[in-house]
Design brief:
The protein is α/β, with parallel strands linked by helices and 371 residues long. It contains 14 helices and 15 strands. The protein folds into two domains: 233 residues, P-loop containing nucleotide triphosphate hydrolases (Rossmann fold, 3-Layer(aba) Sandwich), CATH 3.40.50; 114 residues, HprK N-terminal domain-like (Udp-n-acetylmuramoylalanyl-d-glutamate--2,6- Diaminopimelate Ligase, Chain: A, domain 1). Helices cover 39% and strands 19% of the residues. A six-stranded parallel β-sheet has the order 2-7-1-8-9-10, with helices on both faces. The radius of gyration is 23 Å and the shape is globular.
Length: 371
Amino acid sequence: MKKKPLNIFLSSIHQNAGKTMVSLGLYKVFKARKIKTAFMKPVGQQVVSVGASSVDKDSYLIGEVFKMGRKLQKMSPVTIGRGFTEKYVFNPDRTKFFCAIKRSYDYLIKGKDAIIVEGTGHAGVGAVIDASNADVAEFLGSKVIIISEGGIGKSIDEIVLNKALFDLKNIEIVGIIVNKVLPEKYEKIKRTIKRGLENKGIRLLGVIPHQPLLSSPTVEQLKKPLNLEILCGKENINRRVKHVIVAAMEPHNMIYHLKDGTLVCTSGDRIDNILLAVSSHLVRDGRRFQIAGIILTGGLTPSAEIINLLEKSEIPVFVTPEDTYTVAAKYENYICKIQKTDKDKIEEAARLVTKYVDVDAIVRGFEGESA
């Protein structure tokens, strides 16, 4: 009798815990193992335009990375647009979009050994439209992997809370992946959370350390969310931002905050700090020192001579009409998601899953099932 495909539903304890990173890594690991795999995100809340259609952005990412563009519509059967929730509350009927989810699932799973189904946020997200992660996992007959962020007490509390909703629907939890654990706390958290989950009868599938690369945007990726216009250095806008400084202090204080990969945010008339950033970029302790970029705020631009110097430095320089602290606050609230051009992040996701997640245990969690 033919084995049923691995039907893996990825949930989490909250948004941005790392579901997409795990999806990318797990898909790539399965591909390396010759496990024919499909992907879908049944209910998408954030979309991108593909032709005349709207597609969930995570489905778009997976589709582009793994060359599945023709299946994008099937990978993203339901997207929740503005006003959808309010309309549904006054006229609840999930039949139409659950039929779309089932058609997509049946189409994608043909000829496959596994399917990765990515949920949205925690177990209860979507309950308002009768399509929570638990509802969808039950409907598709999936088994669930819950992704948590690093921690002990809070993480276990939230894992148990999320598991309770899946338990109500008799959905099996294959195990937990703990993500973004600080390296200096890694061994302690791994040892303690493993025992804490065992006490609750829950399997730990892996503990992934925090990798700064995955939360580091390129300066180009900041252009739209921070309302920036490029002034010069366009050829280097793929540089990664490792940290940001608000250069409102005097240069002799600012110099201690400049590191490789720094994005300098300063008023366009602070010529002293602009020149310090350029000189630090060109020479620092006898080595080349790469400033990721400079944002000139307040709608102010320096003289033509300074701009000429900036052009020669090849540092990406942006201008914005907004003040320095508004820009810094926007950056602080910016959530860096993996994009299709982030080849280094995609490779890193696969490396992390391969090294830190017990993929064999995931596969074993489906052994013995037959169609």
